[in-house]
């Protein structure tokens, strides 16, 4: 059984943009950069996670209308339109690339068109499009899918009368057993002997 045809679905207009031929392959990339912190006296810099990068889906799409002797741009222009600003949304459209069990919610961020065959009058009848889709996911949907157990940023507080690392952990992380995270972040050896008024860093949990 032949593999079903790849489709680019415009989520804004609910329209499908088909490809003439399925790609021979596709590449999915994901990077998670860490920021280096220069701290004097260490053999190597400390690192801190700041912000993840979106997944990238790249491939080449092949279009050929040489048998029909028609302009291949009737198909390639539809791909290019996926990068143009929508007058109602004030942005290019949101897309869903579907091929078999691959479902990739994205935007088309990069397009390179190469025309390789022409009729005698110069009409292009064959083209190879190099496309790069980048993952699209709103902040609300990301938080809903993966709820955070703490703030995304390090907090700084002053230990108040009656507070302990365990009580801080219960309040900030909803788990008193995470007091070790606070102790490690502040170089505390004895969690039972922290003076009132001590400034503390409360790092995020990942």
From TrEMBL:
Pfam families, sorted: CIS_tube
Instruction: Give the source species.
Output: Alkalispirochaeta americana
Q: Taxonomically, which superkingdom?
A: Bacteria
Please identify the protein, giving its name as recorded.
LysM domain-containing protein
Q: Which residues form the LysM domain?
A: 155-202
Q: Which InterPro entries does this one have?
A: CIS_tube_prot_N, LysM, LysM_dom_sf
């Amino acid at each position: 059984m032949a593999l079903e045809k790849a489709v680019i679905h415009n989520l804004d207009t609910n329209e499908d943009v088909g490809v003439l031929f399925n790609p021979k392959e596709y590449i999915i990339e994901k990077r998670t950069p860490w920021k280096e912190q220069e701290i004097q006296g260490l053999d190597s810099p400390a690192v801190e996670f700041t912000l993840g990068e979106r997944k990238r889906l790249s491939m080449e799409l092949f279009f050929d209308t040489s048998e029909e002797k028609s302009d291949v741009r009737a198909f390639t222009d539809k791909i290019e339109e996926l990068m143009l600003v929508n007058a109602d949304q004030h942005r290019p459209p949101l897309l869903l690339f579907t091929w078999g069990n691959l479902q990739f919610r994205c935007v088309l961020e990069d397009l390179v068109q190469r025309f390789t065959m022409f009729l005698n009058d110069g009409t292009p009848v064959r083209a190879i499009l190099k496309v790069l889709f980048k993952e699209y996911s709103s902040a609300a949907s990301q938080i809903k899918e993966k709820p955070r157990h703490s703030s995304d940023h390090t907090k700084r507080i002053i230990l108040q009368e009656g507070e302990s690392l365990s009580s801080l952990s219960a309040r900030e992380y909803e788990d008193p057993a995470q007091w070790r995270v606070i102790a490690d972040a502040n170089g505390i050896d004895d969690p039972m002997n922290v003076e009132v008024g001590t400034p503390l860093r409360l790092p995020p949990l990942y």
